[in-house]
Amino acid sequence: MEKKPLAKVKIRKIQKADLPACARILKSAYRRPPHQEHLAPHTARQYLEEKYQHCRQHSFVAVDNQGDVIGFQLLYISAWTSGPQAILEELAVDPKIQGQGIGKRLLDHTHHYRRSHKVKSAMLWARKDPRLLKIYRKQGYRQADDFVIMFKIF
Fold first, then answer.
1. CA of residue 1 relative to chain centroid, distance
2. Taking a C-beta distance cutoff of 8 angstroms, is the pair 70, 94 a contact?
3. pTM of this structure
4. Between the CA of residue 130 and those of 26, 78, 87, 126, what are the distances in Å?
5. Which fold has domain 6-138?
6. For 57, 65, 81, 84, which has the most beta carbons within 10 A of its beta carbon?
């Protein structure tokens, strides 16, 4: 895929019709480090359809000048003690064009959207990958000292 100029990227609300493209991006992005997960196409699609049901109102895609989806973010907003809280459920950019600021544009858009909805805090989960953590730290996120994410594999 040819590199696309950043200026041609448009951020718009996600639509159900975007989910197949988002699933391809998710599958491709998760196949690479740091994730190295091998999602089956139906698993990626099902995962996104389930997230879409809860997040569609506050989620966006990045599209190139041909209208093709090249990245997306799924955001959930809920009530919390200090006021509405945003949970960044998923953020992915097509690996072929990562490093061009598309993820940053999605995060910037999310933060502007968050402010317009009077959201008081935001949280996300990220792999302990220095590259990813650097991106989120530049956006003002910090690692919580008082929370742990726990998993159990059956």
1. 21
2. yes
3. 0.87
4. 20, 29, 21, 10
5. Aminopeptidase (3.40.630)
6. 84
